[in-house]
Amino acid sequence: MGIRKFFKNDFIKDFSTLFSGTLIASALPLLFSPIISRLYTPEQFGVFAIVSAVVSSISNVAGGRYEMAVMLPKKGSDSKALVRLAAFISLLISLLILLIIFLFKGDILKLLNAEILGNTIYIIPPLLWVMALFKPFNYWLNRNRLYSKNAIAKVVQGGGISIFTVLLGYWGLKDGLVFGYFSGWLAFIGLVLIFLSISGFFKEKISVDRIIRVARTYKQFPRLNVLSTFLNDTASHIIIFMITIFFTVEQTGYYNFSRQYLFVPLSLLSMTLSNVYFQRIAHKINTRESLKNEFSTIIKILLSIGIFVILIISTFGEDLFVFFFGESWKRSGELATILIFGFVFKFMISPFGQLLIALKRLKLALIFPVLYVILMLTLYFYRSVDFDLFIKMLVLFEVLAYSVYFVLTLYSLREYEKGILKR
């Protein structure tokens, strides 16, 4: 494939549109990070890590995973019904979490060894709902190929988080990281709602009967995908809780700082690629076309980026952290040179999980999160070791788990391609 033909490829054009927004959205927090790192302490980053871990563990399942079906219906009205269904379920879940916090706040903080969190814990329910709304709205925009609108909203989100975090830190608010993050998400959802309104999303009246019907039609998503996703997300963030309980909130802050400025930008890029990939393969699966070209394209992109990032961070990570963030974050730079291998592995393989969902191989998809949780829980036996050894074992288990995940996607792709040949 020539260079000109490569960039005329619809997949590449769609990806480039979303990627440009994601790149800017990721770059803005990075541009502000030298300021933010000097306004907040490692302990305050630890508090933010705890809130983020709780919300991130729940937000992806708060909508019952019905948002994952938004791309699939042939009728646009069914797609809109799924968006409304996911939004309503996530509201109920957020209210339930609020009730639990109200009743058991003290016990929760004691369990997490995070009494320092205090009343900031009440930000979790509204933040959870706002983040849960992102998924169905995001998939609906992508279904209708409104990639530029999605990109603009992400830029506003990244800019909002950065600006509010700096302002709140400058004003001396100790939990400015948490509230700045929440403010950026509010700006994002507000703008997306405007885009939805302009595109006519709210013009069509969607009946309760239709919502109930699509809930039944796609009931396999909450039945089979909620557990796997929850286990996956919990496993991804259980490390935050383990470090806080086994070590200190300060160590949690150092770890999360490395994660925030390395893995989060990578995961945003990975999510962007996943969204475009899912839209493309969902259409091809409906028309029973081969997926090999898309699979090959995404592998080349991910592998190229992954190798480049590993070379840079493993060689210069510590010096880069000191230069950009200050001497107080040297410890995070040391951890980054170890963590980058696990981060890049997750970045390169995560998008292929969309293939299992698009092919409705939900039972097969459950294998990975179960294995992942088991491996992460195994770290309990390393609770008394040196912190660096704990981190190395974490990376080893992540690489092992995601290797199995990739094998599962290859198996599913092969079975699908065999089915096409038999037609």
Automatic annotation (TrEMBL):
It comes from the Bacteria. Its main location: membrane. It is a multi-pass membrane protein. This is Lipopolysaccharide biosynthesis protein. It is found in: Cell membrane. The keyword Membrane applies. One of its GO terms (cellular component) is plasma membrane. Keywords: Cell membrane, Membrane, Transmembrane, Transmembrane helix. The chain crosses the membrane at residues 12-32, 44-62, 82-104, 116-134, 155-173, 179-202, 223-249, 261-278, 298-316, 336-357, 364-383, 389-413.
